[in-house]
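Weekly sync, protein design subgroup
Attendees: M.S., D.O., the rotation student, P.L. (late)

Item 1: inverse folding check
M.S. brought a backbone from last month's batch and wanted to see whether the design step gives back something sensible before we order anything. D.O. pointed out we never logged the input encoding, so this time it goes straight into the notes. Structure tokens as presented (742 positions):
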């Protein structure tokens, strides 16, 4: 161990004594001071998504017993949501037009979601009233006739009542601020059904929606898309008509009502085109909100357009509306946000804005894949700060929310919505993209995002859909990556050591030993790992593909290495610890052999001294190979073919604790049969005649491959075979045949 290795060991030992819990190495950005705590911000995001109900049991009662609609039989095309809101009585009166298309051979009824706390008065279509049942939080509408595949249907549901759990998580909230009415919605993941009938799943987007709301004239209505009209009804109420002409999922449709102060900004996305930015804020926050939103949001839109493309809803708007939750929600074209410092913080504003691409434009296919929304938006925060503050800040930002916990990013159980939102889908989900970027490289990563956006714009996607796009773009199989990082339940813990010595051919060889010592699944993480070697010539980074639990690498440099660092820029979510290099067999694999040909390979050991020996402790080598316990050389010629597995142990003669074992699997390929080549020297000649005569008449050895000596294929080796070979060599006789000697 040289002085540099010794110093690193002392430093790491000191770090361990001081409680270096993550056992991680310093990485790029570690000396950058962040102005935010992203991990805490993400924690508040998902904690504020949790319901504000009396107990978890109340939430489970609300959702666990519900079954799906018959959504696989139809595709919703359009909703017309017409609401009259009585904020004094906390009651809504609704009339929702529902348009869809049949996608099965025939359909005579449509089932949509609507909580039983609301009362359905009637359902009708152009032909008149329709028969319906409202049970178990679903409305089953019997259509006027049987509709065939591809045929459209339409009906209107008329209903009324007080939405469930007002002020809670199930979608619709009546509250107040400074004594003034405040009505807001937050329908993610399955709360749209608490205030309007719909197919309440993320994958069934409608092409467009109209939202028409009648409220007291003192109140302002904020929603998705653009305002079509705002009409004073002359009776103390007014009706605001919002329209969105982009595809939208039910949980992204929003409503907020309050005596809002409204101010505007512009996003100038080309020299001749601009898009309105609308801010519906609490009156007492009008000036303060400008400090955090004016010009800032426009700048963020410009930055995110770099990696993600032009803002998806450019023909409508982007806006922010204050609501009575502690967090924020990416309602399409109209983010809802708290008026606290949290809601104004740059990471939160960027996160919700990024959702307009990832979550709104492209939506997760179901809540199992929620990381496709939240992980993408979280990673967008880091990309924004990279563009604004540089690559070191990017790394510092990523490092600040590294996720060391267990569990899979893919959410197994979505019947209980407490499972859907958690740090893992935000933090580890963001890290999945960070790691994927380094695996495929910057260029292919961002082209993959572009291709993913183009293929799934206005649609929905699963993890497998995204994986497929990246694989097709990069031209590589990434099943191993997604399996371990999306469906695996942990992260790797690397213990590594290294030894450097001069290479006899010039330069230096560094022998790097990496062990994965984690207990979580998968047992072995396959990852390319950056190894930075520092010498007098500067820094040189080499990449090794670590795909075994224990693995050795030989890295060559022109000058003597001083420091060897694993994953210096922290492109992998991992723990890592350096240890002294002791005693390792560095030959992880042996060359395969070929039947009848000479073989030579060597099992190599590296340690501080040369006092080691070898022994084979299990398995069987091919017959004819010889293993030298002093040198580790394997040599010889075998006439066997097939798979051979054996284990070799090396041990130090002076230090009993220095030992290592490796199990080898060697394939010996069979050569093309050569009937008549009795001595297996590669040729059919008089030597084969002599070999057979010695065997038959003088008790000499069998041919190495007996069937090559049975050239008349009568299943025995005798003088008749000698005659056949003589005839073939000297008289132009028939070709020798492959024998059948048992």
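Designed sequence read out in the meeting:
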């Amino acid at each position: 161990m040289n002085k540099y290795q010794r110093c690193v060991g002392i430093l790491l030992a000191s770090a361990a004594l001081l409680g270096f819990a993550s056992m991680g190495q310093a990485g790029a950005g570690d000396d950058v001071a962040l102005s935010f705590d992203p991990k805490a911000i993400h924690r508040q995001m998902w904690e504020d998504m949790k319901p504000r109900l009396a107990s978890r049991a109340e939430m489970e009662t609300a959702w666990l017993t519900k079954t799906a609609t018959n959504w696989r039989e139809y595709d919703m095309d359009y909703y017309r949501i017409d609401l009259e809101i009585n904020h004094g009585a906390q009651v809504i009166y609704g009339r929702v037009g529902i348009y869809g298309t049949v996608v099965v051979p025939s359909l005579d009824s449509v089932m949509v979601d609507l909580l039983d706390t609301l009362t359905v008065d009637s359902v009708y279509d152009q032909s008149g009233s329709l028969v319906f049942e409202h049970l178990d939080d679903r409305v089953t509408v019997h259509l006027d006739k049987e509709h065939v595949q591809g045929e459209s249907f339409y009906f209107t549901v008329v209903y009324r009542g007080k939405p469930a759990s007002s002020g809670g998580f199930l979608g619709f909230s009546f509250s107040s601020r400074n004594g003034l009415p405040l009505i807001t919605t937050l329908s993610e993941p399955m709360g749209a059904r608490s205030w309007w009938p719909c197919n309440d799943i993320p994958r069934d987007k409608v092409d467009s929606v109209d939202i028409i709301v009648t409220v007291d004239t003192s109140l302002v209505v904020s929603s998705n898309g653009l305002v079509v009209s705002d009409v004073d009804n002359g009776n103390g109420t007014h009706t605001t008509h919002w329209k969105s002409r982009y595809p939208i999922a039910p949980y992204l449709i929003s409503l907020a009502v309050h005596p809002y102060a409204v101010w505007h900004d512009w996003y100038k996305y080309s020299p001749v085109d601009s898009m309105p930015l609308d801010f519906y804020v609490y009156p007492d926050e009008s000036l303060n909100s400008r400090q955090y939103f004016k010009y800032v949001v426009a700048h963020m839109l410009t930055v995110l357009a770099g990696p993600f493309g032009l803002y998806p809803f450019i023909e409508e708007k982007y806006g922010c509306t204050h609501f009575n939750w502690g967090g924020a929600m990416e309602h399409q074209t109209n983010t809802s946000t708290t008026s606290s410092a949290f809601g104004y913080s740059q990471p939160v504003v960027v996160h919700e804005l990024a959702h307009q691409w990832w979550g709104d434009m492209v939506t997760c296919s179901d809540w199992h894949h929620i990381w496709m929304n939240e992980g993408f938006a979280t990673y967008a925060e880091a990309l924004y700060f990279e563009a604004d503050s540089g690559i070191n800040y990017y790394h510092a930002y990523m490092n600040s929310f590294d996720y060391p916990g267990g569990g899979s990013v893919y959410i197994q159980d979505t019947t209980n919505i407490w499972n859907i939102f958690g740090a893992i889908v935000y933090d580890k989900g963001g890290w999945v993209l960070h790691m994927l970027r380094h695996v495929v490289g910057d260029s292919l990563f961002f082209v993959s995002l572009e291709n993913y956006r183009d293929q799934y714009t206005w649609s929905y996607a699963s993890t497998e859909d995204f994986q497929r796009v990246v694989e097709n773009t990069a031209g590589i199989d990434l099943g191993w990556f997604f399996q371990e990082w999306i469906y695996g339940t942990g992260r790797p813990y690397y213990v590594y050591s290294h030894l450097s010595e001069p290479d006899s051919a010039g330069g230096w060889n560094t022998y790097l030993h990496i062990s994965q010592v984690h207990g979580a699944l998968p047992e072995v993480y396959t990852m390319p790992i950056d190894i930075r070697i520092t010498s007098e010539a500067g820094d040189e980074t080499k990449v090794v593909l670590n795909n075994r639990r224990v693995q050795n690498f030989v890295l060559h440099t022109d000058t003597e290495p001083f420091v060897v660092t694993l994953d210096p820029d922290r492109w992998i979510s991992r723990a890592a610890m350096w240890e002294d290099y002791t005693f390792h067999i560095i030959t992880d694999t042996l060359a395969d052999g070929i039947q009848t040909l000479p073989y030579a390979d060597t099992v190599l050991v590296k340690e501080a001294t040369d006092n080691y020996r070898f022994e084979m402790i299990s398995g069987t080598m091919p017959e004819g190979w010889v293993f030298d316990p002093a040198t580790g050389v394997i040599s010889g010629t075998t006439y066997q073919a097939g798979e051979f597995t054996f284990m070799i142990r090396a041990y130090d003669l002076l230090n009993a604790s220095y030992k290592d074992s490796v199990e080898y699997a060697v394939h010996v390929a069979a050569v093309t049969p050569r009937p008549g080549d009795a001595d297996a020297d590669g040729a059919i000649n008089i030597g084969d005649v002599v070999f057979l005569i010695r065997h038959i008449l003088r008790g000499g050895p069998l041919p190495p491959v007996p069937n090559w000596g049975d050239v008349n294929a009568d299943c025995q080796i005798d003088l008749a075979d000698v005659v056949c070979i003589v005839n073939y060599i000297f008289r132009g006789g028939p070709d020798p045949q492959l024998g059948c000697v048992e």
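Discussion: Residues 1-24, 51-65 have pLDDT under 50 and may be disordered. Residues 371-389 form the longest helix (19 residues).
Action: P.L. to compare against the previous round before Friday.
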